[in-house]
Amino acid sequence: ACLSTVSLKLQFLQFTSIHLQFTRLSILLINFVVITDDGVSKSFLAYKTNSSAEKEQLQTSYNTLTKERYQIQTSYNTLTKERDQLQTSYNTLTKERDQLQTSYNTLTKERDQLQTSYNTLTKERDQLQTSYNTLTKERDQLQTCYNTLTKERAKLQTESGKFTNLSWQKFESSLYFLSTESKTWKESREDCLKRGADLVIINSDKEQTFLFNLKKGVWIGLTDSVNEGTWKWVDCTPLTT
């Protein structure tokens, strides 16, 4: 657009220069007619003829320049309009670019936030997986212990049945041996110790009721042999009421 404007200005200056020359020639012709006498009429006519030819050429050049100037002006106007349209398009694209940049920045920020959330969730998941694995291992260990205890309980129940047939009485988790022989407290304790047991220590009213319901004379593990009048159980714990 700038080069076209300079070219238009140069052509306009050329047109102006030719127009000035044509005007000066017309003035000289008028002055020449005024000051010329009859003696030089032929020279005047020749000059006039030449001047007319030059005038026609100048007129033709003038008309051509006028036409070119119009065409250049039209081209200039067209280029100016196109430039304005391009400027409008440029401004629109710039605005759209800025909006896209803003959207891009927003999406980038959201992506970073999501990435952070994802990393956090991944870490929590790994921690939960570790906890789950630990609990699973503990559960398996407990299951193994449970199975072992179940087998031991079954074995003990079998053993308990055998002891029951051999004058043993079961109460809750304990077995009580009932001798068919009459013995002193000391003899009874010695017999219990030989069997890997001891005289009974009563720990509850239920246990006392159980022993009473046997309806047999039994020795219990209570004695004042160490200090007469001070009763203690065979495990050395004092008697409490």
Explain what you see.
The protein is mainly alpha-helical and 241 residues long. The chain has two domains: 2-107; 167-233, Roll (Mannose-Binding Protein A, Chain A). Helices cover 74% and strands 5% of the residues. It has helices at residues 2-35, 41-165, 185-194, 205-213, and strands at 168-171, 174-177, 222-223, 232-233. A two-stranded antiparallel ribbon has the order 1-2. The protein has a two-stranded antiparallel sheet with strand order 3-4. A hairpin with a 2-residue loop joins strand 1 and strand 2. Helix 1 runs antiparallel to helix 2 (41-165). The model is unreliable at 33-39 (pLDDT under 50). This is C-type lectin domain-containing protein.
Fraction of residues in H or I helices = over 70%
Computed over alpha carbons, the radius of gyration is: 66 Å
Q: Which sequence of strands runs across the widest sheet?
A: 1-2
Element-level helix/strand string: HHEEHHEE
- N-end to C-end Cα span: 120 Å
Q: Report the principal-axis shape.
A: rod-shaped
Oligomer: single chain
Task: Draw up the topology in text.
Elements: H1 2-35, H2 41-165, E1 168-171, E2 174-177, H3 185-194, H4 205-213, E3 222-223, E4 232-233
Antiparallel strand pairs: 1-2, 3-4
Spell out the key features of this protein:
241 residues, mainly alpha, Mannose-Binding Protein A, Chain A, 4 helices, 5% strand
